[in-house]
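Saturday, quiet lab. Running sequence design on the structure tokens for the scaffold JK sent over.
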């Protein structure tokens, strides 16, 4: 079975012969479109659609295509100890070798020669500032920018932020064409969008599609609410702009979801407003500061909402709190549901990480939480994000009914696990096994109330009304499991 992977869409090249195949879609019996200026065409998708049945993107491309650049990042080779090597799924001579190396984390063979990776970018100021993806230029010794008029410049890396996958370059040029920045929050699912980039090194390739979804949270990509599209994006498109039909950039094409490494209908773009915030900090300071509160949160489904007395599944359920972190100092506990941050609703657990990360370290955030069946207000002073958790998502909890044999933690287990109290699951069968509970799990709390003995667990289950939420610890992860008691 082929493994599905999220793949950054930069492409690496060595000595490769590029083969291309194209297609032409014709429409017989259709009158030729009315000729308009590029500016008019970019701003009149409805008129174009009336003539051809689909929007005409030619005006948009003529107006803003020259602001899209090709980026070549050259990496000098260096020896790698044999012990640190990791086998990759491709032969080193394969043009995708470098591409997959980025995701699989493998080391290159000893005495590796120089390599080059290709990506895209776009000019955001006439004096030469360029936005692209951080992974396009990661580890590069020399970054070269090529314009559509064939001019080439050696770029200076102003800053690179791996957590958002945004980088800022600067070339020494004046009066350059620039893109127009739009507002991704005004875009809607189902609207047409256009990508311009350099897939497989083919400069200024234009592809189109629609917005498939918004505010997507992806594995290991905590702080960005991605725009999902079905625009064909392939290796080399990384860092290129995603346009709306007004000719405004609303995103940076960043990665694809693929079984093969090529486009399969799922591509993801960084919203441009998030990228601009990163750019501003990189230009001013060379790095990005993010707020953090030190909690792990999970999705709330209908069963969990019922267990906590919420009228509907919304908010971010706190499943773990970092000891002595900002949230712990503010009094936030596992089992709290964060409903608002500074008056802004947290509709989903995926909203919280980006909202907290956008705040400055040291600032005070007002949180509305749900605890014991009622809303409460708490103020938390934000810490500074380094490699610690801002507010991370854990997978959706399994569902099911309770049915476990448990025992109290022994003193030795408490010492080894640093868990003060809880119940070890010795056997899970029937409803418990269907819920995903396993032998070895530690039940820490029920409906937010700690449990330390089997008798406590039995009493609270007996008093529960319809459903409960068990906080369990498995290895180093804590998660709430909703249980429908029938």
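Result came back. Writing it out in full:
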């Amino acid at each position: 079975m082929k493994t599905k992977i999220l793949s950054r869409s930069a492409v690496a090249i060595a000595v490769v012969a590029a083969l291309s195949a194209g297609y032409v879609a014709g429409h017989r019996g259709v009158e030729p479109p009315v000729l308009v200026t590029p500016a008019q065409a970019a701003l009149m998708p409805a008129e174009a659609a009336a003539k051809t049945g689909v929007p005409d993107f030619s005006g948009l491309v003529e107006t803003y295509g020259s602001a899209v650049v090709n980026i070549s990042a050259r990496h000098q080779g260096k020896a790698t100890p044999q012990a640190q090597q990791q086998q990759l799924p491709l032969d080193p001579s394969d043009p995708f070798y470098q591409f997959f190396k980025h995701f699989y984390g493998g080391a290159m063979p000893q005495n590796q020669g120089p390599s080059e990776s290709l990506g895209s970018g776009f000019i955001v100021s006439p004096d030469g500032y360029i936005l692209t993806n951080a992974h396009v230029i990661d580890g590069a010794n020399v970054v070269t920018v090529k314009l559509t008029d064939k001019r080439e410049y050696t770029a200076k890396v102003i800053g690179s932020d791996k957590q958002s996958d945004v980088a800022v370059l600067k070339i020494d040029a004046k009066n350059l064409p620039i893109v127009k920045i739009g507002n991704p929050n005004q875009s809607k699912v189902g609207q047409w969008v256009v990508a311009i980039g350099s897939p497989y090194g083919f400069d200024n390739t234009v592809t189109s599609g629609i917005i498939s979804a918004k505010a997507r949270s992806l594995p290991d990509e905590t702080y960005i609410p991605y725009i999902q599209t079905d625009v064909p994006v392939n290796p080399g498109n990384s860092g290129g702009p995603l346009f709306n039909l007004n000719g405004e950039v609303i995103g940076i094409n960043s990665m694809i979801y693929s079984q093969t490494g090529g486009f399969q209908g799922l591509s993801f773009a960084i919203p441009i407003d998030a990228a601009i915030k990163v750019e501003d900090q990189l230009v001013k300071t060379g790095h990005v500061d993010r707020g953090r509160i030190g909690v792990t949160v999970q999705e709330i489904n209908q069963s969990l909402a019922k267990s906590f007395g919420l009228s509907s599944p919304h908010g971010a359920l706190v499943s773990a709190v970092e000891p002595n972190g900002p949230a712990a100092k503010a009094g936030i506990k596992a089992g709290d549901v964060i409903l608002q941050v500074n008056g802004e609703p947290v509709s989903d657990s995926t909203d919280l990480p980006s909202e907290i990360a956008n705040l400055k370290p040291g600032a005070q955030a007002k949180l509305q939480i749900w605890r014991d069946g009622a809303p409460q207000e708490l103020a938390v002073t934000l810490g500074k994000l380094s490699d610690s958790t801002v507010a991370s998502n854990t997978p959706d909890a399994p569902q099911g009914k309770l049915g476990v044999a448990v025992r109290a933690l022994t003193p030795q287990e408490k010492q080894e696990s640093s868990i003060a109290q809880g119940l070890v699951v010795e056997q899970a069968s029937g409803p418990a096994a269907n819920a995903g509970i396993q032998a070895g799990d530690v039940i820490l709390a029920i409906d937010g109330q700690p449990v330390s003995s089997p008798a406590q667990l039995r009493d609270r289950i007996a008093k529960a009304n319809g459903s409960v939420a068990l906080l369990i610890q498995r290895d180093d992860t804590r998660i709430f499991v909703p249980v429908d008691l029938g």
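Notes for JK: The longest strand covers residues 205-218. Residues 13-39, 79-86, 102-111, 387-401 have pLDDT under 50 and may be disordered. Ask whether to fix the surface positions before the next round.
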